[in-house]
Amino acid sequence: xxxxxxxxxxxxxxxxxxxxxxxxxxxxxxxxxxxxxxxxxxxxxxxxxxxxxxxxxxxxxxxxxxxxxxxxxxxxxxxxxxxxxxxxxxxxxxxxxxxxxxxxxxxxxxxxxxxxxxxxxxxxxxxxxx
Amino acid sequence: xxxxxxxxxxxxxxxxxxxxxxxxxxxxxxxxxxxxxxxxxxxxxxxxxxxxxxxxxxxxxxxxxxxxxxxxxxxxxxxxxxxxxxxxxxxxxxxxxxxxxxxxxxxxxxxxxxxxxxxxxxxxxxxxxxxxxxxxxxxxxxx
Lengths: 130, 143
Hints:
The complex is a heterodimer.
Chain A (H helix, E strand, L loop, with lengths): L12 H16 L3 H7 L39 E17 L4 E4 L5 E11 L2 E9 L1
Antiparallel strand pairs in A: 1-2, 1-3, 3-4
Chain B lengths: L14 E2 L10 E3 L5 E3 L5 E13 L11 E22 L4 E18 L4 E5 L6 E12 L6
Antiparallel strand pairs in B: 1-4, 3-4, 4-5, 5-6, 6-7, 6-8
């Protein structure tokens, strides 16, 4: 039987010192595992930004049109004041003096002020859809 | 914005905030004092300066280029007093309020192309549909 174990029965002093130095390397480099243990406890409840309305519009977006019997808010899990408007028409001028109209049937705006639910807690805020 | 009649072929600018990673659609926070409400609750005034938006002239084309722009505006909702209630239990929302009028004045600028535009005064604009009131939805609907 041929042994494959290298017992290093005749290692030199230089080889022993080199092996000892390499054995210390893991102790010299901070381990991320140990570093995590030094951090203060944290929560993992998600962000405090509002959620969109879950269902989507005909274009595949979370965009609620403004109109009769349609939901005014763009924020889900919300209670508070809202205002909506659409089908704007108006006119103005650019920096060259050209008269340019703005607004169309899909030009809509909204404002929401109140409480919404995010990060597993009630939040307060005012937001606008423009 | 349209050069000529308001049809897609005539659209030359379209200003809005980017859609958030969450999907929240063209919604931005309003700073303190940005929204003022009269004590009787019948007039909302929303005023913001230099809101970071993008100009996407070919919106809603998916590959419409978005150029950084700024927008300032003042918008005023006034209640007409006519009651309105919208409710859809399947979508968990209830709105109770009134019909309203809404007018706005605005300024936009796209610095990288040297374009700016300013609307005529607020009283010269109009919207065909406006409402204002209170809403509950989602987890607040049944409470």
